[in-house]
Design goal:
By secondary structure, the protein is α+β, with helices and mostly antiparallel strands. The chain has 2 domains: 2-172, no CATH class; 276-426, no CATH class. It contains 17 helices and 11 strands. It has helices spanning 28-34, 37-48, 64-70, 74-87, 106-113, 119-122, 149-168, 191-199, 204-213, 218-230, 235-254, 262-270, 300-311, 325-336, 342-352, 358-371, 376-379; strands at residues 2-5, 18-22, 60-62, 128-133, 138-143, 278-280, 286-288, 294-296, 384-385, 393-394, 401-403. The strands form 3 sheets. Strands 1-5-4-2-3 form a 5-stranded mixed sheet, with helices on both faces. Strands 8-7-6-11 form a 4-stranded mixed sheet, with no helix packed on it. The chain has a two-stranded antiparallel sheet with strand order 9-10. The termini are far apart.
Length: 427
């Protein structure tokens, strides 16, 4: 068993319980064995329970051909289209014949993921088991040399015994859950801000859709490898891919390892989609042109809140929302193309009231609208975020925002609120 230190938490997520079979060259015996995936999943889970790590009850054995086969049927192709669109919205799926591309196997995937490791670790990988431990903060590789089933089962037992020893000797911080103080003791003008983290949740139906479309760990890596193969379809993209690979090779092989953050490079080249510009068109539609001109649909009131925060890159404190009431009302009237009725006046009053939860409800619906279309890593650029006690912001670079419509509030004599309007000491 060998290992390499790698703190991957800032970059992507591989669950502790995912155990991957890897191989640099095709091993006929091991593939024949692991083809009986269900039996080995049961065996791995049986041993995994002995670790008592408190995070997962059973292991998730990752055998690449099984994942590929899942996406090879006609219904699987449609499912893969949805998953790829969600995880990589910049990819133009309709132009791709994915069923001709699923020629990825364990060997190609092993070479792909090995690019994040240093040479000394990568060179020792042959046929074996690979997993990441958050407790140890490292990738662990265990070689499999078995030529018969009994030996293979014993090797798997040894793997878990050695892993248990390593985990028992590791320093592990038990993170205590910090519960917030009683809401009744929070001042009225801070209640909305207090609730933002705890009530800005997404609805169950959105969670269910996301759980179906968002793949974690090695499934996410496999999706990126599939995407990489898709991008090689036409000659121009293939040339671009080759250039990227040459750059990747130069950075990883020719440069000194201490000068390279391999995991960050891996994410940059293989896991990160570009952020699409955002356009507000003449009909107040929210469009993302680089994501196949995707429209983000919101109700007029939700859209008014979104536009308000989009116009204020410095962010807005919830307890100061009352200062923006007229601006919010004008934006809503522009979007709805009508005079503001009493019912809307009440809704806007509730949004601007720091003791009400209306603004949190609107922020949750806005968050859902983006998360229902693509992953949180991408969506986080677009929806409203922020820590308690600080202004809530949309982090998207405003250089990527184009307004093709002028709002009537901009024609008023009064100025739009700016950071200079606030007493910084009172933030």
């Amino acid at each position: 068993m060998i290992s390499t230190k790698a703190d991957i938490r800032e970059y992507f997520y591989i669950p502790d319980n995912q155990i991957l079979y890897v191989e640099k060259e095709y091993n006929e015996f091991l593939n024949v064995c692991f083809n009986n995936v269900e039996e080995f999943e049961s065996l791995f889970s049986h041993h995994y329970k002995t670790l008592n790590d408190g995070l997962y009850k059973e292991s998730n054995f990752i055998y690449i051909p099984k994942l590929i086969n899942k996406w090879s049927s006609k219904s699987g192709i449609d499912s893969l289209n949805d998953v790829l669109s969600y995880n990589h919205p910049a990819l133009y799926i309709d132009s791709v014949k994915i069923n001709n591309l699923l020629k990825i196997d364990t060997v190609s995937y092993t070479k792909f993921i090995s690019k994040m490791f240093d040479n000394s670790f990568s060179e020792q990988i042959d046929s074996g088991l690979l997993m990441y431990s958050y407790r140890l903060g490292e990738f662990i590789y265990f070689p499999l040399r078995a030529k018969d089933l009994d030996t293979l089962i014993r090797e798997i037992e040894v793997f878990f015994k050695e892993l248990k020893v390593r985990l028992s000797n590791a320093d592990f911080d038990n993170y205590a859950l910090s519960f917030p103080p009683d809401r009744d003791n929070i001042p009225d003008d801070e209640k909305t801000d207090y609730d933002f983290t705890y009530r800005n949740k997404i609805a169950d139906e959105i969670k269910e859709r996301i759980s179906t479309l968002k793949k974690l760990g090695h499934e996410e890596f496999l999706l990126r490898l599939i995407t990489k193969e898709i991008l090689k379809i036409d000659s121009d993209t293939e040339l671009q891919s080759i250039v990227h690979d040459l750059t990747f090779y130069r950075d990883f092989v020719l440069a000194e390892p201490k000068e390279i953050n391999r995991i960050e490079r891996f994410k940059e080249f293989y896991l990160t989609d570009k952020v699409s510009p955002l356009i507000i068109d003449q009909s107040y539609r929210i469009l993302l042109p680089e994501y196949n001109n995707l429209e983000i649909k919101l109700t007029p009131l939700q859209k008014a809140v979104y536009f308000l925060f989009l116009r204020h890159r410095e962010g807005i404190l919830f307890k100061r929302l009352g200062y923006y009431r007229r601006e919010l009302q004008d934006i809503y009237c522009d979007i709805s193309n009508r005079e503001c009725l009493d019912s809307i006046e009440k809704s806007i009053d509730d949004i601007c009231n720091p003791a009400e939860n209306s603004i949190n409800e609107k922020c949750s619906r806005i968050k859902e609208a983006f998360l229902s279309q693509f992953t949180g890593e991408i969506a986080g650029n677009y929806y409203i975020t922020g820590d308690r006690g600080y202004p809530k912001v949309i982090s998207l670079d405003r250089a990527l925002v184009t307004w093709k419509v002028r709002l009537s509030y901009d024609d008023r004599d009064e100025d739009i609120m700016t950071p200079e309007d606030f007493d910084i000491n009172n933030l």
